[in-house]
Design goal:
The complex is a heterodimer. By secondary structure, chain A is mainly beta. Chain A contains no helices and eleven strands. The radius of gyration of chain A is 13 Å and the shape is globular. In chain B, a hairpin with a 2-residue loop joins strand 7 and strand 8. Chain B starts with a strand and ends with a strand. Chain B contains no helices and eleven strands.
């Protein structure tokens, strides 16, 4: 059974510092990995999707890497801003059309 | 593109009543939709997978007679919480699977259910 872990569960940084969020998984046979952002009381916003054959994806200040052999993905957010404060979730799909398995999330607070 | 809506966004109901939540894919067809439940400060827990025209597949521990799912068209899935109790109070989120290109799931904004 696939297990997805995100450590730390919460993170507080001063504005301008780079954020590094970790996601680890137990089964390397994945189809793709997705990073989401969730604001309190809101739905999910997809940030980056990395297909199994890819090693990273970038969008603006965000960069996500994927290392299947070590069962890890890392989300980097450069030059953090207070607006980056949210919960970040990683999720995996084992096969096309399958369900997403979510990690527990990391709650991020960026202090002005 | 790829917008998913949910209705209502929040609902308060009394114990013993039933509540229906709709999930719609607005600009694409979705043969598969997923229903998740989220408790405060917790991650999403998959409840069931809904396929158009067939019975939903429920995850272990989810009561199918309590959480009725209907996926009657390629753009609409409904979740009905029957005989709701206070412990059913939660945030319910649906997602729809795109059929073209990369099969990415697109999430709705969620429905906050409070049972009094």
């Amino acid at each position: 059974k696939q297990e997805v872990t995100q450590i730390p569960a919460a993170l507080s940084v001063p504005e301008g510092e780079n954020l590094v969020l970790n996601c680890s998984f137990t089964d390397s046979a994945i189809y793709n990995l997705q990073w989401f952002r969730q604001d309190p009381g809101k739905g999910l916003t997809s940030l980056l999707l990395i297909q199994s054959s890819q090693r990273e994806q970038t969008s603006g200040r965000l960069n996500a890497s994927l290392d299947k052999s070590s069962g890890r993905s890392t989300l980097y957010i450069a030059a953090s801003q207070p607006g980056d404060s949210a919960t970040y979730l990683c999720a995996l799909i084992k096969a096309a059309g399958n369900k997403l398995t979510f990690g527990g999330g990391t709650r991020v607070l960026v202090k002005p | 593109g790829a917008v998913v809506s949910q209705h209502p966004s929040r609902v308060i109901c009394k114990s013993g009543t039933s509540v229906k939540i709709e999930c719609r894919s607005l600009d694409f067809q979705a043969t598969t939709m997923f229903w998740y439940r989220q408790f405060p400060k917790k991650s999403l827990m998959l409840m069931a997978t809904s396929n158009e025209g067939s019975k939903a597949t429920y995850e272990q521990g989810v009561e199918k007679d309590k959480f009725l799912i209907n996926h009657a068209s390629l753009t609409l899935s409904t979740l009905t919480v029957t005989s709701a109790h206070p412990e059913d109070s939660s945030f319910y989120i649906c997602s729809a699977l795109g059929v073209a290109g990369v099969p990415e799931q697109y999430f709705g904004p969620g429905t906050r259910l409070t049972v009094t």
